[in-house]
Amino acid sequence: MTALIFYPLSWIGKTLPQGRERLRREGGMLLVMNHVSHLDPPVDAVFVHRQGRVPRFLAKESLFNTPVFKHMIGGAGSIPVTRRSSGASESLHHANDALREGKLVVIYPEGTITKDPTGWPMRARTGVARIALDNDVPVIPAARWGTNHIFDGYTKKFRPFPRKKVHIKVGEPVDLSAYRGQPITTDLLREVTDLLMVQVRDLLAEIRQEQAPEEFFVPGRKRAD
Question: Kind of pairing, strands 29-33 and 104-107?
Answer without folding.
Answer: parallel
